[in-house]
Amino acid sequence: AMEGGPSAxxxxxxxxxxxxDEVFKAVSxxxxxxxxxxxxxxxLDNAIGHIYGTTxxxxxxxxxxxxxxxxxTTTETKEAGTDNRNIVDDGKSQKLTHDDIKxxxxxxxxxxxxxxxLIENSTTFRDKTEFAxxxxxxxxKKKYEAVITIVKPSTRILSTMYYAREPGKINxxxxxxxxxxxxxxxxxxxxxxIVMETCSGLVLGAVMERMGGYGSIIQMYPGGGPVRAATSxxxxxxxxxxxxxxxxxxxxxxxxxxxxxxxxxxxxPEENALVEEESNGLTEEKQTSIQEAEEEPTPEAAMxxxxxxxxxxxxxxxxxxxxxxxxEKENKENVREKQIKQWERRKKLLEAAALLREKxxxxxxxxxxxxxxxxxxxxxxxxxxxxxxxxxxxxxEPLLDCYTKLRERGGVINLKLSETWLRNYQVLPDRSHPKLxxxxxxxxxxxGITVVLDKGKSDSSNSxxxxxxxxxxxxxxxxxxxx
Amino acid sequence: MSFVEYxxxxxxxxxxxxxxxxxxxxxxxVQHGTVTQTKYGVIRHSTDLIGKKYGSKxxxxxxxxxxxxHPTPELWTMNLPHRTQILYSTDxxxxxxxxxxxxxxxxxxxxxxSGSLSHALIRTVAPTGHLYTVEFHQQRxxxxxxxxxxxxxxxxxxxxNQDVCKNGFGVSNIADAVFLDxxxxxxxxxxxxxxxxxxxxxxxxxxPCIEQVQRTCLALEEYGFTEINTLEILLRVYNVRTxxxxxxxxxxxxxxxxxxxxxxxxxxHQGSPCANLQQGTVQFKSGVPLxxxxxxxxxxxxxxxx
Lengths: 483, 306
Fold this sequence. Notes:
The complex is a heterodimer of chains A (483) and B (306).
Chain A: E1 15-20, E2 23-28, E3 34-37, E4 40-43, E5 55-59, E6 63-66, H1 98-106, H2 111-120, H3 130-144, E7 147-151, H4 155-165, H5 175-184, E8 192-197, H6 202-211, E9 216-221, H7 229-233, E10 244-248, H8 252-257, H9 269-278, H10 290-295, H11 299-305, H12 307-319, H13 323-357, E11 363-367, H14 372-379, E12 388-393, H15 397-409, E13 412-426, E14 433-434, E15 444-450, H16 458-469, H17 473-479
Parallel strand pairs in A: 8-9, 8-11, 9-10, 11-12
Antiparallel strand pairs in A: 1-2, 1-7, 3-4, 5-6, 5-7, 12-15, 13-14, 13-15
Helix pairs in contact in A: 2-3, 4-6, 11-12, 12-13, 14-15
Chain B: E1 15-21, E2 24-29, E3 35-38, E4 41-44, H1 45-49, E5 57-59, E6 65-69, H2 73-79, H3 89-98, E7 106-110, H4 116-125, E8 130-134, H5 138-150, E9 157-160, H6 164-167, E10 177-180, H7 189-195, E11 201-207, H8 210-222, E12 226-246, E13 281-289, E14 299-305
Parallel strand pairs in B: 7-8, 7-10, 8-9, 10-11
Antiparallel strand pairs in B: 1-2, 1-6, 3-4, 5-6, 11-14, 12-13, 12-14
């Protein structure tokens, strides 16, 4: 079967995700780079060339070794108790001491064998019920068998990872809520989509995955530049960024009023770099994806991307002139490079502005730390009629306000305020039940569909719309005045 | 128009959604010379629909009006003719994400049922992916084929009329993901495994009963699937209401010590003091849960073939 293709193998420079049980961590696959994950350190060198999904054992010296499968539990006749009436917790059931266990570990004994020894040295193990034995083994395995699976990044994995590790960076957007957004927003290939997020670029990445490089995305950003730390964890091909545009929020008003110009850009690229750096604690190492290289080119990256520049630099080297001259030329190059960059940024900004001005976007996705009402009231102007929009907020109250203001504005129907609950289950023979803990909150969504805005007689159509959508809401509206 | 590509104007042959109001809408096949009856009067397709922009307000014969919406899998799910129990968008969304579907994915599904999930799957894997869907009920299979044709997505889907538990999906080693919504999914796990690519893929089974989940999980383990995980997702919808609560009379006004005067600690959601339109009441906005909500649709069991 050739379906795996080259992409199914772990390659140097890839963005990959480490997985141990339910814990994930995104990393760049680099040689001779120490990784610390779940209190263990190791190198990824040996993983290169293996298929994604391979499970590795950490051996001495931090090397990874593919785990040999099928170590079916021994065929010896199992002995087990039926209840715990005679099991007394005297703290002495384990005959191995802490020092013994440490000695085993230091000798480099495999985790699997340590677990076996722990079982053999437990005086109560045989008296435990079969289920309790099972649980005991699982617990010990988790502690002593250091296995790590390397998986390919996806929205499923990265959104689960972010929610568990750094919920603050994604405004506590739970993965099932993100899933709702993608569906409610009808995100698919060919969309022309507006995204406004402050979720480290996770929502953007999720949208890009669903669009598969088809269509265009205009990312609206606050401050000096869009944050895309999570986006870069996806390891998207470079082509996915060809139709990714960005536009500063601070320019939206001028674009809507027709006074927009590019003379005053919001900030220089250095500031972008800072924003990106600050928000990127997840992978510890500096992100090295193509995307970031594009966003804030380092000199090397810029050379790789821009063939003319590479040519220029090679010419400089080839000339092999005096050091001073060389340096001067370098400076000139830098100035020119900066100008080119500035010019390219301006060109991209104008492109994004032109796309927005068409006011025919196929949808709007908002998931930010800001109050959603002003964002919606402005950004919906850029969306075509009969298109879905979805707003995420960690809190319900701002969405209540947003709902009311959108009703007053008109031009939207089928408004829905919702939340999802997620419950995980343990499913084992005779031991099935919901998991003991579930997430308390994954945020709220306000969704709806745009319609042609009847500007002339907006007042009367509003009250009609209200009546139409909710017959009982007439009274509410009367009471609805200054609140 | 198609379900995988937006169009601006309504054309002859389109499937459009007539939106009458909150939760009240229905699909209509746009045809020259046809009329559609609504409670607001008649809609004449030739003059009222064709050539108009999607999202337009259309005035019906009795003076009432409706909006005409572009179809999407989500609107279709809310309006499709039921031939079976269907999956709704809340479950569909988590299925799509957990199966890691995207443009280009190859998906196998059984049963096709009323095609609610099928439309969402097709939307997500288009334009380069494909859906192989298996339905053992001949009439349903044919109806699904017809709908896919009408919706402009027939090139993205293959409907097979056979029993997935006996005969599998009719394809092997090509799928990135498999979805099962059948009464005895454990009988189809082997077929699911062989439909998935040799390099691996994701799988999901939907079952209303925990006993079904139990057997499915055992079968998944037996066939070497990993990352077996069962979950349940529930939707809570809130009505936005302005609530007004009476202030109890504790005799304070008699003491001249002013007020119903609620300070900033009032429960207003806007952070500003609420209007006391009537003496002795306080108002606030609230998201009120519906009186009755769906408490269970089904358990979703996910697993990985690696």
